[in-house]
Design brief:
Keywords: Hydrolase. InterPro entries: HotDog_dom_sf (IPR029069), PAAI_dom (IPR003736), Thioestr_dom (IPR006683). One of its GO terms (cellular component) is cytosol. It contains five helices and eight strands, in the order H-H-E-E-E-E-H-H-E-E-E-E-H. The chain is an alpha+beta fold and 158 residues long. Strand 3 and strand 4 form a beta hairpin.
């Protein structure tokens, strides 16, 4: 699958998730190697009004979404793959007034489970804000209830 097709699928997947629209998440990059999402800084995601530090829940959503959408980078066809388990290690708070990026990759795909990992950062990926590891359950192609989501995500390439 081409990088352009993966990028477009990732954008459609993200657009189908209302909470991600509210947070303003954007696809920054997508390829067979992984996915990077951008979380724009805004006052609505601040957890500590005195310092302006982003709430950990916004970082968790960024990373869960990045890992979940990274499945479109690894699978030839779209499948609904809900989160089974997610572990986030917060290394240090994000600096106020700066966007956060979340990179995720699928490092193992089995018939039933997809394993993903990644990290959140601001300017330098070598200085992560958080690390994440997650497992995602493969529901299979054409699972009842996912047909409209599949059409929304795959669009013209369905």
């Amino acid at each position: 699958m081409s990088n352009t097709l993966i990028f477009e699928r990732a954008q459609r997947f993200l657009a189908a998730l209302r909470h991600c629209q509210v947070l303003g998440l954007q696809v920054h990059d997508a390829s067979p190697l992984g996915l990077t999402l951008r979380l724009p800084y805004s006052p609505q995601i601040v957890g500590d009004p005195e310092s302006g530090v982003i709430h950990g829940g916004a970082i968790t959503t960024l990373m869960d979404t990045a890992c979940g959408i990274s499945t479109v980078c690894a699978l030839a066809e779209f499948e609904v793959c809900p989160t089974l388990d997610l572990r986030i290690d917060h290394m240090h708070p994000a600096e106020p007034n700066r966007d956060v990026f979340g990179f995720a990759e699928c490092y193992r795909v089995t018939p039933n489970i997809i394993f993903a990992r990644g990290y959140a950062y601001q300017d330098d990926p070598a200085q992560p804000i958080a690390h994440v590891v997650g497992t995602f359950m493969r529901m299979g192609i054409g699972v009842a209830g996912d047909k409209q989501l599949k059409r929304d995500i795959q669009g013209a390439d369905a």
